[in-house]
Design a protein that fits this description.
This protein has a domain at 210-353. The protein is 38% helix and 11% strand. The protein has helices spanning 20-31, 69-73, 94-112, 120-130, 135-147, 156-159, 163-172, 174-200, 218-221, 260-265, 269-279, 316-322, 342-350, 359-362, 393-399, 402-415, 423-433, 443-446, 479-488; strands at 2-3, 36-38, 204-209, 237-241, 251-256, 284-287, 295-300, 309-312, 331-333, 355-358, 381-384, 438-442. The strands form two sheets. An eight-stranded parallel sheet has the order 9-6-3-2-1-12-11-10. A four-stranded antiparallel sheet has the order 5-4-7-8, with no helix packed on it. The chain is globular and about 70 Å long. The protein starts with a strand and ends with a helix.
């Protein structure tokens, strides 16, 4: 598995997208024997932090991932319309990109409906008919566009709308609704084509779903009874992380918490719908913060991170409740959790859901008595050098403690079969040689990039998610090496 969010692909119009470079990337994976392309969530982001993990919808796609070149190819814009696109820099300027892409998409939509012959009309109508569950999501996006990103401040009748209110609002703003539908049609069509191409090349896309949803989301707006809200719809408690050795003050994420008893009463219908919507986009799906299903940190709204308390989640009952409606064999659990929970591990094993091992967390600082060596990791896991939240391997090896660096080199010298001149590639090789059924790394590690290429620093509010590749060309230099490693470790 290689982690590379599409926004970090080169080319496009100031940002990576579902265009030709995404297909070239799949070709690279196919030619090197890599079977899984791991991405971050594809949902719409906010316009401040631009985090893929902070979205207004679990079901919709981010318009910034749409390839605009396609619109010129089918004739609903001119090629010249794309001449003033944001420059392709090594860091995405999200504000410029979002502004430009939205302007082109709105122009495309307007042009499309000037031409009543265009075959896209019937395709969009068919898409709408086949996806009735999207109506409320599109209305929510439409209302957000008109009234802002806090549904509590919308017109009173839209805060807690009935069916007639939604119907009338949609009719009164049918052009904006049509635009939102058009955007999601394009996103879905382009992603579907990418998935089809990936399947032809035997490359599957591993998607991601955050355990929590945003307060400003259709998920909460239309399902208030499933969330821990006050009568005035303010959040009673919010999600976060307990204090630990890294963050003594704890972390406040600010997401609304679930009322798990209410979810149980409806047999986890909302969750089943949410997960199946994600599984319609990706061949495989990673559940972020899987441990939150077992225990979660609840912080009083407006309080400090240290003022939270641990609460029990639905645990195994959740998996029992969804197993008949969700293909659990397509699920990967991000179980890097603050607590060592036997019940979580036992549930994963019972339902055959792989967990995660991170090399940069599992090499000990003091003694091998602290951790099992990589050669003894369990089969039912995905081994990683690191993820989007961690330093690149080059940065980790440069900045970690002398003790951890020493133990890493001891393991390489004494255990590694496929050795390289590069410590970064030795880390990849250690991960590939584990008994784990899956092994993954970052594209940054393949290219031995340092701290300048880190994708996200948890807790840092701004400046994340914007790194991107300048070109796919440097990957040609490591193609043979990666293919040989996959062969030697029997990963293909």
């Amino acid at each position: 598995m290689i982690i590379l969010h599409p926004t970090a692909l080169p080319g496009g119009h100031g940002i990576g997208d579902f265009g030709e470079n995404a297909y070239e990337w799949i070709d690279f994976l196919d030619e090197t024997g890599v079977k899984i392309w791991q991405v971050l969530p594809f949902g719409p982001t906010d316009n401040v932090q631009f985090s893929p993990y902070s979205s207004s919808s679990s079901k919709l796609g981010n318009f910034a991932l749409i390839d605009l070149t396609y619109l010129a190819e089918i004739g609903i814009i001119e090629k010249d319309d794309l001449n003033n696109s944001p420059k392709n820099l090594s860091k995405v300027n999200f504000l410029d990109v979002y502004k430009f892409k939205e302007s082109i998409l709105r122009k495309s939509h307007k042009n499309l409906y000037k031409d009543n012959i265009n075959s896209l009309h019937s395709e969009i109508n068919e898409y709408e008919e086949n996806n009735p569950g999207l109506e409320n999501e599109l209305i929510f996006q439409m209302a957000t566009s008109l009234y802002g990103d806090d549904w509590k401040k919308w017109p009173k009748d839209l805060i807690n709308p009935d069916r007639n209110t939604l119907k009338n609002f949609k009719e009164e703003n049918k052009e904006e609704y049509s635009y939102q539908l058009f955007v999601q049609f394009l996103f879905t069509e382009q992603l579907n084509k990418l998935n089809v191409y990936g399947n032809k090349k035997n490359v599957k896309i591993l998607g991601d779903v955050p355990i929590y949803t945003n307060f400003h989301s259709c998920d909460v707006w239309m399902n208030k009874s499933l969330f821990d809200l006050e009568e005035n719809f303010e959040m009673a408690n919010v999600a976060g992380a307990a204090p630990d050795v890294f963050t003594a003050a704890g972390q406040i994420w600010g997401n609304p918490l679930y009322l798990w008893e209410e979810h149980k009463k409806e047999n986890y219908k909302w969750w089943i719908d949410r997960l199946n919507s994600c599984l319609s986009k990706y061949e495989l799906l990673r559940i972020d913060h899987f441990g939150g299903l077992f225990q979660f940190w609840a912080i009083p709204n407006g309080g400090l991170g240290v003022e939270g308390v641990w609460r029990k989640g639905p645990a195994k009952n959740f998996l029992e409740g969804i197993k008949d409606d969700i293909e659990l064999e397509r699920i990967l659990a991000e179980d890097l959790f603050a607590l060592d929970l036997d019940e979580m591990d036992e549930a994963r094993e019972e339902f055959n859901i792989p967990g995660i091992k991170m090399l940069n967390q599992k090499i000990p600082h003091n003694s091998w008595d602290e951790e099992a060596p990589p050669s003894e990791w369990a089969y039912n896991c995905a081994a990683y050098t690191g993820t989007h939240d961690s330093p690149t391997t080059k940065q980790w090896l440069e900045e970690t403690s002398d003790g951890q660096r020493k133990h890493f080199k001891e393991f390489v010298d004494g255990n590694l079969i496929n050795k390289f001149d590069s410590d970064v590639w030795n880390a990849i090789s250690v991960t590939w040689e584990t008994p784990c059924q899956l092994a993954g790394t970052l594209v940054q590690d393949l290219l031995e990039l340092g701290k300048e290429a880190r994708f996200n620093i948890p807790g840092q509010q701004l400046g994340n998610w914007n790194w991107r590749l300048d070109s796919l060309e440097p990957l040609s230099e490591i193609k043979d090496k990666l293919l040989q490693l996959n062969k030697d470790t029997k990963r293909i």
